[in-house]
Amino acid sequence: MRRTLGDRTYLLIQDKVLPERPDLLLFFHGSMQSGNVIRRFTAGTFDAACPLVAYPFGVHQHFNDARLVLPVKARELGVDDVAFTRDLVASLRQEFGVGRVFAAGFSNGGQMVMRLLFDTPGLLDGAAVFASALGAGSNHAPTNPDSAYKPTPVLFIHGTADPLAPYAGGSSQARGDMLGAVANAERFAQLNGAGPASTRCPYPDVTVTRWGGAHPVELWSVDGMGHVVPSGNQLDPRLGRNTSSFLAAEVVRGFFGERSDA
């Protein structure tokens, strides 16, 4: 289950019987977490999201994401998480014959997923981001320009009462200015060439805004939810409340489409 690649660590969860070209999900943890912690944080609900699920460990419990302002050790050390991710995908593809590659991330991990969309264009077949949004203005600082981005389906789930990544945007934990959840989703819809937005309310506390097309973008806005991933878990109350309306893992699996072994 726990593996190493060079000097880096990741967890790998796999189905007992794998299809010929199994889908791979990379799940990036949040600040001050690890692969083990994010599995507990999400109650293990993502373990069955794909035939192969990898939980990379950040360096000093962080990933070196695309924000200009990031006062953590991973940035100070110049950790190349983009190269590590490429190497991890290549290694698992060689070992298992991986087909589609997806990525999901929470908070700092969500920031890392968005960095991958700009700095490894075409690597991912889909992405899911929880409790995170792009840096605003100069705080959006991936290595590649936005013009390098390749359209990719993206799902966002964000609580309206998130105390650390405010739904409306602004400053987040002294890590620079951030876009609001709606502006962030609109930016990706623009990059994806997605169609006009439509809305629905599948649950009393959830509004889903969808920009359709070949590369859709969805924003699940969860009324009153805090800095969490919908997983049925009761977490530190300082993060805000969770929702019992749905499991993020099920939404992600539906958004990415049927598994290759379904």
From TrEMBL:
InterPro entries (UniProt xref): AB_hydrolase_fold (IPR029058), Plant_Biomass_Hydrol_Est (IPR050955), PLipase/COase/thioEstase (IPR003140)
Domain Phospholipase/carboxylesterase/thioesterase: start-end pairs: 96-173
Pfam families xrefs: Abhydrolase_2 (PF02230)
Domain of life from the UniProt record: Bacteria
Any one GO molecular function term: hydrolase activity
Record keywords: Signal
PANTHER family for this protein: BLL1128 PROTEIN, UNNAMED PRODUCT-RELATED
Name this polypeptide is given: LpqC
Organism: Corynebacterium phocae
Source lineage: Bacteria, Bacillati, Actinomycetota, Actinomycetes, Mycobacteriales
